[in-house]
Design a protein that fits this description.
Elements (H helix, E strand, L loop, with lengths): L14 H20 L23 H5 L4 E4 L2 E7 L12 E10 L4 E4 L7 E4 L7 H7 L7 E6 L20 E10 L2
Antiparallel strand pairs: 1-2, 2-6, 3-4, 3-5, 3-7, 6-7
Length: 179
Amino acid sequence: MLPNKPSPRFAGAGGDSHLRRLRTESQMGLKRLTRSSDPSLRLPNTRTGSFRIKSEEPAQQLLFNDSTVINGLFIQKLENGDGINFPRVGQRVKLHYTTKLLNGKTVFSSRDSGVPWHVVCESDDLIKGISIVLKLMSVGDRIMVTVPPELAYGHHGSPPTVPPFSTLIIDLELVSILS
């Protein structure tokens, strides 16, 4: 049997504290949802990681908090939309976005050209992280979402602009639903 040693990647200066901080941030997001004043939004069992929510439209209601953690995505609400019109799978939508790396370098942006991006909700044109949050947004919502590599471009990256294993910070605005 192998001895129980810490991973060399995280051992030493700050490695363990970094993991502890990430775990704490995720738990704080869950606690914020659990302590919601609206009983329909409360998570029944955060210790087991259950995400069952007692609501007719749980996805849409979750984003009305200032910040939320969903499926490993850290989401901050920047602007509120109409709260009525939410995209469904297969609908075409117009998005404005700015994608940055953790070092602050902008790698993609529709705002630079001023022309919104047209895309089909849940299409292969979207990274997994954006597919998840897009269904949670109403027209006019603007969010900042931190997307981990496994929900972004993963181990391949998107050469030459996005290196492999990159966490992305995306400022995303749902401009309109086209069809």
